[in-house]
Write a structure and sequence with these properties.
single chain; disordered C terminus; 8 helices; four-stranded antiparallel β-sheet; alpha/beta
Length: 255
């Protein structure tokens, strides 16, 4: 039985005449942590949006957990087992932390036709447990999200993803707007996912972070995959050379 959890074959996305993603062949194995790197506009986020169903591909195939899939949106991808932290966070500003963690998967005391009763205590208890597990410190989980700092909001989004991680976690620039302490918290969450054997795709500009956290580095340039290298067999200068086009080609066919 194959240990490949995610595979894309010829994944392509065009916006009119703009080729944002072209013939991307990618694999991710069970328990593997892979970084996706590249300059702005290289196709990294476009790649993530196809996998998570935010956008529909122009061509190509996606295989997840052994089956070909075509997710119609992020909710369907999440139900299949893909948890994602997007740059836009997708938090509800007027809701508190437990309501955000359980948004779309609320716990109920009972449901009877159109009538239902939320189990707020159970959700709050699970939230406190999730925050403790991920070492995310939120002084008051009953505060609306809008009253929290950008760093706290980001950590809530990441804690939500880590708490419900099932088959695959994708993080798109999770620490781009965070300070040193909050960045360290997120990196510890990622290490915890590694210990639990949860595979991860990390989109990041931070090469220090990439070399600290992942097993393999995949480089995008001008919409194509130009390199896929094991962390221990490369260095920062090598990766920068691929990003800038000094090294590599645009064959887009890497395992």
């Amino acid at each position: 039985m194959s240990d490949i959890i995610l595979e894309t074959r010829g994944l392509t996305k065009h916006y009119g005449g703009v080729h944002a993603l072209e013939d991307a062949n990618f694999t991710l194995r069970e328990g593997e942590h892979v970084a996706v790197v590249g300059d702005n506009g290289a196709g990294k986020s476009t790649f993530v949006r196809q996998i998570t169903g935010v956008e529909q591909r122009s061509a190509g195939q996606i295989f997840f957990d052994g089956n070909e899939v075509r997710h119609t949106g992020p909710l369907e991808a999440r139900e299949a087992g893909i948890e994602t932290v997007f740059q836009t966070l997708a938090l509800a500003d007027d809701l508190d932390v437990p309501s955000n963690l359980f948004l779309g998967r609320e716990m109920f005391k009972f449901k009877l036709g159109p009538f239902s009763w939320l189990d707020r205590k159970a959700m709050r208890d699970r939230t406190l447990e999730a925050l403790k597990t991920t070492a995310v410190k939120i002084p008051n989980v009953d505060n609306p999200i809008r009253n929290m700092s950008g760093g706290q909001r980001q950590c809530v989004a990441i804690a939500r993803t880590a708490a419900f991680a099932s088959k695959l976690v994708i993080m798109d620039e999770p620490t781009a707007a965070l300070g040193v302490q909050e960045t360290a918290q997120v990196e510890n969450i990622i290490r915890g996912l590694k210990e639990r054997g949860v595979p991860l795709i990390l989109v990041s500009h931070n090469l220090r972070q990439v070399f600290d956290l992942v097993d393999r580095i995949v480089v995008f340039r001008r919409g194509r995959i130009v390199a896929s290298v094991l962390r221990g067999e490369t260095d920062g200068n090598d990766i920068v050379s691929y990003i800038t086009g000094v090294k590599g080609n645009a064959e887009g066919a890497y395992a």
